[in-house]
Design brief:
Length: about 230
Amino acid sequence: MRWTRAFIGLNFFYSIALLAALAPASIAVAQTANSAARFAVVLDAAHGGDDTGGRLASGQMEKAATLAFSVRLRSLLAARGMAVITTRESDTAVDPAIRAQIANRSKAEACLSLHATESGSGIHLFTSSLQPSQPARFLPWKTAQSAYVEHSIALAGALNSALLHDGFNVTLSRTALIAVDNMTCPAMAIEIAPLRGPDGKVTAEPDDSDYQARVATTLAAALLEWRLEPRQP
Ligand SMILES: [Zn+2]
């Protein structure tokens, strides 16, 4: 009886020891599985509220066109199993610092700031002009994007190829970007300009629903590929 109790005691001790040994490993596995399953995209519809953005030829303000595009893209991404976080869902003013904070809390694989313009043509992709820096535990707020800028350029390259493949005219450039420069994720601004024919005449305005749907479909497919692409940590 004593022996049995001792054995049970010992067995119990080993069980605890075994659990203790296994616990950290299984948590790590669970975390890996979780991060592999979760692919989050932040959609930042630029402008809103008092900040109307530019006026489009249709008479609509940029803030409405960016929100419509965000809603359109959100549903396509969600349908492809991505977690989508938006910085606004209505016609409200959102401070650039709040937009960046929402993005940074989301731990997203792609943060897209959405704009619309009447100038130029096709799709304008902008990444931050900050010089790349090493990732660190604490990043200066003003230049936080610098640690992610290489990933951002890679993401812009992937979206650029997909858009070109689908027949869009694309302009890629780097500039100082409000909100994006504070984001700790692969981030960029995507600006929809009018679709123009070979003669330069506008064939679709940036707020044209068919045009927006085509751009959103291409971006959703490109992000799905970006999700599956093996990358350096
Ligand atoms: Zn804008």
